[in-house]
Design brief:
transmembrane, membrane, MetI-like fold, 15 helices, 2 domains, mainly alpha, transmembrane helix
C-alpha cells in the first residue's frame, strides 16, 4: 500500500507543477500594468515609487525567475504579498471557510439528490419517473450555470423571498442553500445517471435473484443487495466531484457575492493582483489533487486489484 501511495503522489507532482505554471503564465500575461492598477486609473506614480514597487514584487525579473522564486516561497509556506500589502496566506485563511461550506453544501445536495433520483429511475425503468429523470438531467447539462443562478436569484430570492439573494449574513446553512443547489447541478446529472445504470446492472445480478428466491421482502432486497453494491462505483465519482466542487466555485461565489476563494480570484483579476490569483489558484489545485489522491487510496484499499494494476 505504501508503494501505491508513493506512486500516486509522484504522479500528482507533475500535475501540480504544470497547472501552477500555467496559472502563473496566464496571470502575468494579462494585458495592463499591475502597478498602475494598484495606484488607480487617475493617479500617477513617480518613477522612483513605481520602480520600488516593481522591485518589491519582482516584476522586472524574467517569468521563469519569478516562477522559481514563487516555488521557493511555496515550499517554505510563503505565498507572498498581495499588491494591496496583505499576505496572501491571510486572504486565504479568511476566505477558505466560505468556500469549504459552499463546496460541502453543494456536495451534500448532489449526493442526496443524485443518488435518490438515480435509484428511483433505475427501479422504475421505462416508466414516467425514469423518463423525467433522464429528460431533466439532459436539460440541466445543457443550461449554463450563470443562467440557472440568475433565475434562482430572481424567483427564489426576489419574487418569493424564500432565500437570501447574495452574501453570507444569514449564515450557514440558509445563505448557502441557493448557491449550493446551483453548484450541485455541476455533477448531479452524472451522479444520477451513473446510479441509475448501476442499479439496473445489479437488479439483474445473480445474488439479487438468490435473495428474492429466499423470500426476502422487496425493500430488503433493494437496500441490502441492490443499493449497497450499486453505490460502489458512485463513491469514486462523488469523491472526485468533491474536489471539483471545492476548486470550481469562482463563478458561483462571484454571482452570489460570497467572500470565498473564488470571489477573491473574481475580484483580483481586474485589479491585476497576480499574487492573490496565483496563491488561491495553487491552493485550489492542491485541494483537487489531495481529494483525488484520497479517493485513489480508498479504492486501493477496497479493491487490491487496483494497486496491483
Amino acid at each position: 500500500m505504501g508503494k501505491y501511495a508513493l506512486h500516486r503522489l509522484l504522479m500528482a507532482l507533475p500535475v501540480l507543477l504544470g497547472t501552477t505554471f500555467l496559472i502563473y503564465l496566464a496571470v502575468y500575461a494579462l494585458p495592463g500594468d499591475p502597478i498602475q492598477a494598484l495606484a488607480g486609473p487617475n493617479r500617477a506614480l513617480s518613477p522612483s515609487v513605481e520602480q520600488a514597487l516593481r522591485e518589491r514584487f519582482h516584476l522586472d525579473d524574467p517569468l521563469l525567475v519569478q516562477y522559481g522564486s514563487y516555488l521557493k516561497g511555496l515550499l517554505s509556506g510563503d505565498l507572498g504579498m498581495s499588491f494591496a500589502g496583505r499576505p496572501v496566506s491571510e486572504v486565504i485563511a479568511a476566505s477558505w471557510p466560505v468556500t469549504f461550506q459552499l463546496g460541502v453544501t453543494a456536495w451534500l445536495f448532489m449526493t442526496v439528490l443524485g443518488v435518490l433520483l438515480g435509484t428511483v429511475a433505475g427501479l422504475r425503468r421505462g416508466r414516467l419517473a425514469d423518463a423525467l429523470v433522464l429528460g431533466g438531467t439532459t436539460v440541466v447539462m445543457g443550461v449554463p450555470f450563470f443562467v440557472v443562478a440568475y433565475v434562482a436569484q430572481i424567483v427564489l430570492g426576489v419574487n418569493l423571498g424564500w432565500l437570501p439573494v447574495s452574501g453570507t449574513d444569514a449564515g450557514w446553512p440558509l445563505a448557502y442553500v441557493m448557491p449550493g443547489l446551483v453548484l450541485a447541478l455541476y455533477g448531479l446529472p452524472q451522479v444520477a445517471r451513473l446510479t441509475r445504470t448501476s442499479v439496473l446492472d445489479n437488479l439483474n445480478a445473480d445474488h439479487v435473484d438468490t435473495a428474492t428466491a429466499k423470500g426476502l421482502r422487496p425493500r430488503a432486497v433493494v437496500v441490502r443487495h441492490v443499493l449497497r453494491n450499486s453505490l460502489i462505483p458512485v463513491v469514486s465519482l462523488l469523491g472526485v466531484s468533491l474536489g471539483y466542487l471545492l476548486s470550481g466555485t469562482v463563478l458561483i461565489e462571484g454571482i452570489f457575492n460570497l467572500p470565498g476563494l473564488g470571489y477573491q480570484i473574481f475580484t483580483a483579476i481586474p485589479q491585476h493582483d497576480g499574487p492573490v490569483v496565483v496563491g488561491v489558484g495553487t491552493l485550489l489545485v492542491l485541494v483537487f489533487l489531495l481529494v483525488n489522491l484520497l479517493v485513489d487510496l480508498l479504492y486501493g484499499i477496497l479493491d487490491p486489484r487496483i494497486r496491483l494494476g
